[in-house]
Backbone:
């Protein structure tokens, strides 16, 4: 029996639990007529945006697929795999966002009953996204395996990167486009509402509030889901690809990783291993999702404890399942320690992000205190906190790489990333739950529900801010290790490096770190992340300005709007944000696709390897800084709104709103989009390896 069927079965189990959660959410009371009206407006805006974005994306996918099909060194299989990966990512993101759009009003209604019920509905709504991503990803990879794994000359290992490339392209458009929409609407609503007009957040008189709520779904649910979908599948792709050098089985696979097994069987087991570990992770995530529950305490510690119970339980179970898989396949026990290094590093990266961004801890509380002396102090203290927060995750990633390499060479490094992402089902659920809770809080205010309901939704929202920052920190760590595996796979595919039978890296004598192509590539690669961030943050600024002008126009021209006797034209802001986001997302996306192709063709394989490494190093530090700075500013504002340093309406609160507004595009647009940029450039390079080799006369 081909053990990849176990991956298919695990994916179907995950899909069955998704169906159960969908049924559970949809059976909940949707709320009063006013709640349903607001929720329907958010749903209409979210679906309208995603339909228009997918139409734009469909054109790009079709054009790239045709190019891939006619390039001689690629062909129709790579084109089909590319389209399949794109459609899988689009389907997973759409399904998860669709339920999130329906769970927000139901969470609001559930919070009227109890805090626990509100958490249960919102978390299970988020779990639909988490479990859909891992189920679709594993089933999709299994289908590719069954279709083409027996192609001659290991051609399969050049086909599967195309699946990851399709997923990455969708992720980039979803994350950049959704991020520009959500943060442009959010910043515009905050600046013109809370700062300029002095009205509360989510006040129904603000024409941008529905666009803000829509953005939470298209950016933080669909965008994050697509981001981690591509991480999930590319991790398996990198691990599989590292088992060969050129068109032969790497000697270290049979002699070091699977000692005693014949070459063909060792290769088969090396391909099966990441899929089976992911299958165990799905089962662990399902169990973890059912462990999340809480009482009625509004303390952040109690809420965090509820989610930690689920993630920690899933982590322990995934480690157990991973050990059993490695033992059953006859692999070296060192691979278990390599996988465990990634699993532990992922959990600790999440905890370090939590420490620097949650208002339960000193760093964020200090930002709140700094806000008492003005917005300038808020910005300075927040940015310092964000930069300081880079050292724990980077040190943890370095330790995980050293440990996993020691026990499993470069296959072990890739397997560490498999371990890190094996519990993605529950990890992503804790992230996707946040926007649902945020929407529920906005609906509570707009529907005029009692203060006690808003207190519950605010508690859930504050927890969501922390879990979102933690999820992004986790995604950054996974992206770094994933990109490293893809870069090495590319370097092996184009003959830059080989690996000895002992698993040691072998470099050509002529290759030097100080060679001109590598130095040029490093410099150009290091330039990519800041330029990319500048483009995306500028796009948010353009959207914000347009939203502010529209809200001002409505207040100026619509009589009775500020008195609350008539309602704003919410759809105008949604339409403005949609048009600008779809237009502004094209340039950074195209740059990401084209840059590695140009570097590889013009400067060669050595320069391209340096280019990918340079982008990885600067992108990793920049992504962590942007993510944690924005998350800390957001929760510093929440800490003040909880009654500290003067509470809502105070000068400290106004200063914290400025910090939160600056941090929004950093943590929800530029920072998380960097993950995808790094992975997409790496997987494009791997997919195009045969073309580069042929172009430069190496094959």
Residues:
């Amino acid at each position: 029996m081909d053990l990849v069927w176990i991956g298919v079965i695990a994916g179907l189990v995950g899909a069955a639990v998704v169906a159960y959660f969908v049924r559970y959410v949809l059976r909940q009371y949707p709320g009063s007529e006013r709640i349903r009206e607001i929720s329907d407006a958010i749903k209409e805006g979210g679906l309208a945006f995603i339909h228009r974005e997918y139409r734009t994306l469909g054109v790009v996918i079709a054009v790239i697929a045709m190019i891939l099909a006619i390039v001689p060194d690629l062909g129709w299989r790579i084109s089909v795999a590319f389209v399949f990966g794109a459609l899988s990512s689009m389907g997973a993101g759409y399904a998860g966002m669709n339920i999130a759009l329906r769970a927000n009003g139901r969470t609001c209604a559930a919070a009227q009953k109890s805090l626990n019920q509100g958490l249960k509905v919102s978390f299970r709504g988020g779990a639909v996204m988490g479990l859909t991503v891992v189920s679709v990803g594993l089933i999709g990879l299994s289908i590719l395996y069954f279709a083409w794994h027996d192609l001659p000359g290991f051609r399969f290992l050049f086909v599967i990167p195309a699946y990851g490339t399709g997923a990455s392209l969708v992720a980039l458009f979803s994350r950049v486009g959704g991020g520009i929409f959500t943060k442009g609407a959010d910043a515009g609503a905050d600046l013109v509402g809370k700062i300029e007009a002095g009205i509360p957040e989510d006040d129904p008189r603000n024409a941008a509030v529905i666009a803000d709520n829509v953005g939470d779904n298209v950016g933080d649910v669909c965008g994050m889901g697509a981001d981690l979908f591509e991480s999930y599948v590319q991790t398996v792709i990198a691990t599989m690809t590292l088992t060969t050098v050129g068109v032969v089985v790497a000697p270290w696979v049979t002699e070091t990783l699977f000692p005693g097994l014949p070459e063909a069987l060792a290769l088969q087991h090396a391909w099966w291993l990441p899929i089976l570990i992911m299958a165990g992770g799905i089962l662990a995530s399902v169990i973890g999702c059912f462990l999340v529950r809480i009482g009625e305490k509004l303390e952040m510690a109690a809420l965090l404890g509820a989610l930690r119970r689920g993630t920690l339980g899933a982590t322990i179970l995934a480690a157990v399942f991973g050990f059993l898989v490695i033992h059953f396949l006859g692999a070296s026990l060192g691979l278990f320690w390599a996988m465990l290094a990634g699993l532990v590093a992922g959990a600790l990266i999440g905890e370090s992000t939590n420490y620097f961004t949650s208002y339960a801890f000193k760093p964020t509380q200090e930002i709140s205190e700094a806000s008492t002396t003005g917005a300038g102090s808020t910005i300075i203290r927040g940015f310092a906190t964000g930069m300081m927060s880079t050292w724990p995750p980077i040190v943890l990633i370095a330790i995980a790489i050293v440990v996993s390499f020691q026990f499993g060479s470069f296959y072990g490094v890739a397997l560490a990333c498999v371990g890190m992402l094996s519990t993605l089902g529950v990890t992503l659920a804790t992230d996707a739950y946040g926007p649902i809770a945020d929407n529920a809080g906005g609906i509570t205010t707009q529907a005029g529900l009692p203060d006690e309901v808003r207190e519950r939704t605010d508690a859930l929202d504050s927890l969501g801010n922390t879990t979102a920052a933690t999820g992004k920190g986790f995604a950054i760590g996974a992206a770094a290790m994933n990109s490293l595996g893809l870069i090495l796979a590319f370097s092996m595919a184009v003959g830059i490096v080989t690996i000895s039978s002992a698993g040691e890296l072998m470099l050509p004598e002529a290759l030097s770190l100080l060679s001109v192509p590598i130095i040029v590539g490093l410099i150009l690669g290091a330039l990519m992340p800041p330029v990319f961030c500048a483009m995306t943050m500028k796009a948010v600024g353009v959207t914000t300005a347009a939203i502010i002008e529209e809200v001002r126009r409505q207040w100026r021209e619509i009589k009775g709007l500020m008195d609350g006797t008539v309602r704003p034209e919410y759809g105008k802001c949604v339409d403005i944000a949609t048009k600008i986001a779809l237009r502004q997302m094209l340039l950074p996306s195209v740059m990401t696709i084209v840059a590695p192709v140009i570097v590889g063709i013009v400067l060669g394989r050595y320069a391209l390897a340096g280019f990918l490494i340079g982008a990885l190093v600067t992108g990793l530090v920049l992504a962590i800084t942007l993510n944690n700075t924005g998350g800390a500013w957001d929760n510093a504002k929440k800490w003040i709104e909880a009654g500290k340093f003067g509470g809502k309406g105070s000068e400290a609160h106004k200063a914290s709103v400025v910090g939160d507004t600056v941090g929004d595009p950093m943590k929800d647009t530029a920072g998380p989009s960097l993950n995808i940029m790094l992975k997409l450039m790496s997987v494009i390079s791997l997919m195009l390896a045969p073309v580069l080799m042929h172009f430069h006369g190496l094959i």
